[in-house]
Every structure is written in C-alpha cells, then in structure tokens.
Amino acid sequence: MDTMRDRFAPVVSRLLDEDPRVAVVLAEIGKDGFAEARRRHPDRVLNVGIREQLLIGAGAGLALTGLRPVVHTFASFLVERPFEQVKLDLGHQDAGAVLVSAAGSFDWPAGGYTHMAPGDVALLDTLDGWTVHVPGHPDEAETLLRHAVAAGDDKVYVRLSVQANAEGLPVDGQRFLTVREGRSGVVLAVGPALDAVLAATEGLDVTVLYATTVRPFDSAALRRATETAGTDVVLVEPYLAGTSTAAANDALSDLPHRVLGLGVGRRELRRYGRIEEHVAAHGLDARSLRERIGGFVSGGPVAEQVA
C-alpha cells in the first residue's frame, strides 16, 4: 500500500492543474514530487529552501493576493519552528492556507527528536479558527486534502503519517463515524489509531467512534454515542495524550462523565528505535490499549483518568 505522503504530490499536482488559485510552497522537503508540476506552473510552485519561517510567510503572502497556498514540510518544521509566523502571518492577518505535514509524532525515529512533533495539534489548538484533519489511510488523505484546498480561505492543517489503518473509510471532513456500537463506554479513535483500537476492544461492550477531523470537534456525535453507551469516554490520539480531553469534557459538560486521554506521552524516548517500539513504549499498541481501556470502562483505577 502506498503511504499518505505518496498521495500528496500527485493529488496536489492535479489540483494545480484544475484550479488556478492553488499554489504550493515547499522548504526543500518534498520538492522532487513537484518537479513536473513546477515545470507546468513555475509561478505557483515555490521552494524557499531550508527557511521554515519564510515558508509560512510566503504562504501567507500568496494567500493575501487571493491564492490558495498549500504549504508542506515535516511537522516539527511546519508548526513548531515557525509557530510565530503561523500565529501572526496567518492567524493575525486572517490569511488562509493549507498546512500539510509529514513525520509527526515519531514517524521517522532515525531523524531523532528534532524530527518529532507529537505536540503539533495541541500547539495549533492554542490558536483560533483552525480545521485539523488526521487521516488514517491514504484514501482518506486524498479526500481530506481535496476538502482542505476547497475550503474557501480557511486555515487548515492536514497531518499525514506513514502509520495507517488497513482500510480507508468514507470520511467527509466533518463528522465522526460510528464503527462499532456497545453499551459500556465510548472509545474515540483518531486517524491511524483505529486498527489498534478495534483490536484492543474486540469483545468489549463499547462504542467505537472514528475521527479524521478533530477540529472542529464533533461534539454532537460524541453526545449521541453516550446516550446508549454511557459517559465513560476514552480518547486514543496518535499525538500528545490529552490533546482533545478538554473538547470532550466541553461536549459533555452538563452530564456526569469521565474522560481518559491516551496518546503519546510527554517523556522523551532517547533511543531511535523503530516506529513499532515507540508505539509500544507509549502504550498505543493493541495489548496495552486493551488493558488501559478495559480497566477504565469497567470502573477500575487508571492513572491517566481526567474527570
């Protein structure tokens, strides 16, 4: 199976052909995938070099001229390093762009901690007005990329990953999907976490929701699920643990409820390792998730519980 990032350049190259508003801004990373598109559209495919602050500034400038910029690099260089430009050049100026990342969390362990960004979604959550897509399959990535580019002049973040579920689902860029129904709790799996969650909850009487668009947070879907499954809620996110616990708490603020946020821990793992080892170390493998989810929905003590 190809990866989400394998889909990125072909999909956006077609959008460059289809829509004269679309522009692409790169910072060296990913430039080879746009070599042919750059020959066709030299004025709308820009490579600013290894200058990530300029990457965001150039994208904002293009947006202010009426273009729809698609801005791409690794997550740590797209969100963390130029965060001031994301906040001011895009946010403060109310300029829309599509930020498309790769290598979030620990997708490229050999790159070391400089190339890891498990806090990217949480960091964007400090800003107003961002839509955040977290596809779990290349087919979903293609759909959500098209949604993002077509979203007027909105600010959109698309988080691509080499981690993926075995099958794509029909996502719409808005709502959570109900994948399994139960009566003893709700588990919300985000993007690439779905397959592990389904394996972990096999035989458990829980509802499983699937989210590929986490901002805006689909509060209505979560509330509907709790009507039959109860108000014990577990969030399994492929980035910083607890990123969406406040959103879930807000959605259920008028109901007695418990929320457990699972995801990438704050402790830095100082060995490169493999992706699978990082997944296990953060307790995001199916075996660990089953213990943590099962203990929580059955009323057992769980250290990460958030009331």
UniProtKB/TrEMBL annotation:
Pfam families for the chain: Transket_pyr
Protein name, as recorded: Transketolase
Transmembrane stretches, start-end: none
Every Transketolase-like pyrimidine-binding domain range: 2-167
Highest taxon of the lineage: Bacteria
CDD domains xrefs: TPP_PYR_DXS_TK_like
Cross-referenced InterPro entries: PDH/Transketolase, THDP-binding, Transketo_C/PFOR_II, Transketolase-like_Pyr-bd
Gene3D superfamilies: 3.40.50.920, 3.40.50.970
Lineage, broadest ranks: Bacteria, Bacillati, Actinomycetota, Actinomycetes, Kitasatosporales
